[in-house]
Structure formats: C-alpha cells, structure tokens
Amino acid sequence: MRIKMLCAMLGLGLSAGAWASGFKLMEQNASGLGNAYAGQAASAQDASTVYFNPAGLLRIEGEQLVVVGHLIRPSSKFTDQGSTAAALGTGGDIGGLNFVPNAYYARDVGPGWKFGFGISSPFGLKTEYDNPWAGRSQALLSDLKTINLNPSLAWLLNDKIALGAGVSLQYIEAELTQWTGQLTTLKGDDISFGYNLGVLARLDNNTRIGLAYRSAIDHTLEGKVSNHPGGDGPIKADANLPGSASLSVVSRLNDAWEFLADATWTGWSSFDRLKVVRATTGATVTDIDESWDDTWRISVGANYRQNPKWLWRMGMAYDQGPVPDAQHRTPRIPDGDRIWLAFGGQYKVSDKGWLDVGYAHLFVETVKINHTETVLVKGEYKGKVDILSAQYTHTF
C-alpha cells in the first residue's frame, strides 16, 4: 500500500531546473536542505537516506514514509557585450518557478536487514528565453527531466558498520528548441539503469562517517526533430549522466549541538559533447563541444536541539561549476560556481510524525560567455536561486 502511495507521486510530474552545478539536482529531501546538504551520506535522519547512502537505512526504526516538495525559483539574466545579433535583445529572465517532489519508504525485512524505496529526480534543466533574442539560433527552450526509481537494501555487518546497495531505474526526457527561420524542436526520451552503494561506520557513540557512490547512467534518447531546415524525422542522442561519490561526517558535540560536513565529487567530464544525429542516416543535426570538467562540492552545517519538539539547522556550501571557460559556456546551460547559505527546522507533530522545512539562497557566480555556434553570443550571465522545501515523515 505504501509503495503504491510512492508511485502515485509520479502523477505529479517532475518539473526541474539546474540548481546544483551542471544540471544535477541536490534537492532530494527537506531535512537536509537546512544544512545545505552537509553530512547527508552519514546523517541518515530519515528514509531519504535511500538516495544519499542506503546503508543509513539501518538507523531508521520500524516502517517509515517520507513525502517531500520543493519550490525552486532561479533567476538568470543575460547582458550583451558584443553578440552578432545584439539588436534582437537579451532574452529576459530565463528562470521560473518550479515544483520538484520526492518520496521515500523504509521497512524491516529481517534481523539486520532493511529495505528502502525512493522516487526522485537526480538531474534536471530548464532554461527558456523570450523570442527574439541575440542567441535564439542557439537556444530558446532547454528542458530536461529525470525520474529515478531506487529500491535499496541495507545490511548490518556488525555493531559498527552497515552496508547498503540500490538499483536505479531512470527515465529521462528532453526537449530543445531554437530558431532556424522557424521554431525547430528536438524531443527524445529513454529508460536506463544504474546503481548506488554505501558504507556507514560508527566510530563511537557520537561520530559517524559515511561513504556513498552513485554510478553514471548512460542514456540513448530516441525521438524526433520538427521544423528543421534539413527535414523532419527520427533522431537519437547519447546522454551520459555522471557518477558521484560523497564522504560525510556527523559528530554530536553535546546534548544540544551536532556538526556535519561533506565533500562530494561529480564526474561531469562524461558530458563531452551535445550531439544529436538522425536515426536513419547518422547525419548530424547538432554537435556542440561541451568539454566539462569534474567538480567538487564542499559543505558544512550544524544542528541545534532546542527541546524534544524543536530542532534548528544551518549550513553553507561551495558548489563548483563544470564549464571550463567562456568559449564552452552555452546559452542552454550558462553555469557557474555557487555559494549556498541555508537554514531550516524540524517540529515533532507527534511521536509518530514530524515536519521538516528548509530554505536556501544560492549566490551564483557572474560568468562570461563568448560562444560561437551559428552566431557569436558574447556577454555575461548574472543569477541567483531561492529554494523552499517542506517534508512530512511518518513512522508506522
């Protein structure tokens, strides 16, 4: 029954945008947002540990259901500094309000064993320009969504170490539009598989260390191109979504305070080219050199337990962008480094349920673009992101 409740979340639809570096989504729970997601591979505060480290399931007591919703409002504006078609304008604010849901479930399956199941959106991108603008021949709409189903198992190796593993069934769909004298649209989707692994070690009664890995997932999207100067028809494109590894620590300093920290590596060098070809002939529809770099995300946070009902959170993070330089920065993903400042809290509604809320503001680096593809787009992007998340957790 509770698995059916999770699957019903799919009916909400996952609308997403690029809030962490590249087009990765950090927003996988609200309980971690207040810490800027510091320590998530070690904290295991609820069933959302399915995503961050499945070994943490052994810290969940009994049967638990977690339902999460995020309101995310990015803003990014282009200032022209010498584009070929500067007279066409700057495209307005390419961000917009988005809603992203997650859901997780955990239950015992035997002594020392725990089962977990998660529905999430690990990657997403949405940028949309007003038409006309100076770079419309390169990009108008860029919209990518993923839905990830993640059954997991955790095993208690001994009284200090837990192991976890999960399988990811991931659906991806993408839509790209640009102006070629008419509105040209490329659409495609795919389903593929990956996995995640985790270890959680208890050093003593106050300190835990978590190590987690999520595999890369290689997709081959199939779809169609419409209103293209070379004609309509079936297309395909590879989308190699990166793997990531996290090392986290959580340490209780006293009865009131807890410290959290995290370092996460993401293998964005897998995103080498954005290439779309015709499925029947292999002829190139578009081929863009991306040449992204691997990235690091470093975060620290703290929790303050005011009383048995109230817990307060705070955190900050540095999130490195993968785009190597202005020549490789494209209007579809005008990415830069981010600084996260976050806070949040938890209120125990009852012995069985509690509510988590979190807020984060992301200061996005002002970045240069000097990209030639059909025409030159030259200037800078200035952006920011606001995230508000809420989560209800219930144990049975």
UniProtKB/TrEMBL annotation:
Assigned GO CC terms: cell outer membrane
Endpoints of the signal sequence: 1-20
UniProt KW keywords: Cell outer membrane, Membrane, Signal, Transmembrane, Transmembrane beta strand
Source organism, top-level taxon: Bacteria
Location(s), subcellular: Cell outer membrane
Molecular function (Gene Ontology), one example: long-chain fatty acid transporting porin activity
Main subcellular location of this protein, as a coarse class: membrane
Membrane topology value: Multi-pass membrane protein
One Pfam family linked to the record: Toluene_X
Record InterPro entries: OMPP1/FadL/TodX
PANTHER family: LONG-CHAIN FATTY ACID TRANSPORT PROTEIN, OUTER MEMBRANE PROTEIN NMB0088-RELATED
Family note: Belongs to the OmpP1/FadL family.
Listed name of the protein: Long-chain fatty acid transport protein
Protein source organism: Sulfuritortus calidifontis
